[in-house]
Write a structure and sequence with these properties.
Oligomer: single chain
Structural class: mainly beta
Largest sheet: 7 strands, mixed
Distance between the termini: 27 Å
Number of helices: 5
Shape: globular
Bound molecules: ligand D6A
Order of helices and strands: EEEEHEEEHEHEEEEEEHEEEEEEEEHEE
Number of strands: 24
Strand order of the largest sheet: 18-17-12-13-22-14-21
Amino acid sequence: CQTGEVAADPQLYDQSYLSPVTIGNSELMLDFDTGSADLWCFSTESPAAQSAGHGLYNPSTGTELDGAFWDITYGDQSAASGNVFADKVVVGGVTATKQAVEAATSVSYEFTEDVASDGLLGLAFSSINTILPQPQTTFFDTVRNSLAKAVFTVDLKKGAAGSYTFGYIDSSKYSGAITYVPVNTANGFWQFTADGYSAGGSDSSTGRGGVAIADTGTSLLYLPASVAKAYYSGIQGATFDFRQGGYTIPCSATPPDFNVAIGGKTFTVPGSYINYAPLRAGSSTCFGGIQADTGIGFSIFGDVFLKAVYAVFDDSGSSPRLGFAAQ
Ligand SMILES: O[C@H]1CN[C@@H](c2nc(-c3ccc(C(F)(F)F)cc3)no2)C1
């Protein structure tokens, strides 16, 4: 029965979190993403112009999956593609002996420029794995039956190292009870329903809840436009800046705390988490950590929310469920 823990290291402004993963005989830093289901990495097959500065997977230790290829596009339209090898993957001591490792033969410039990241480790449901002609399992699905308990947990923090655990829940990492809600896997995401939102101490709701996904690979918290609008209406100097593509606030602002009701419990995102980052170094205007989910089709509970809670991704029962507890 395997269990393991690995650090989640924050990048600048907590834009993403990277964790060490051993693939074959390379240790790479991967972005764990509960919103996608491909484990891919820069490789010795990637063009040098695209992979400069990145750790590389050398497929010589693996066995090529003949005729298999992959091609993925993320929410921000960044993309990567390549071929596939079965190889040993170890995360925090948890070992998958024949994990589908997707070696990149092409990546978009956003990945090339993100030099700290050597690729992604998808933790959504394997139904949305992009490998053709035959989709393969995520790392979690590959090791699931060998884990002490078929769960992984997410403990991200603001500006500090957090952790992912596989196979167990660490009661020292949260306070109070864990509130569980059912997950709808139809779209391949850890999708749940939020009950409602409110700002500050007020119980005046900023709006009914709705369908949402828990997504460690998204930096911010994307909510119904009416909720985002109501939230920022309470901040002096807040504005929707079309050029920046979202709400901005003065970096000197102290935004109100933001409350989310899930499963009948209220979870609070400290207002400081919503003063996300200067538009560019030295700017006195900051980008808001809450943005409108217009056009996405559901809300996205990204890192701005997840770093305020302890989250349990539980596939140990008859149907998957998500658990949340205060950190
Ligand atoms: O697709 C959805 C699934 N989860 C979200 C996600 N987005 C990325 C991503 C990571 C790194 C980059 C880049 F380095 F800047 F290129 C871009 C996007 N990873 O997960 C959105």
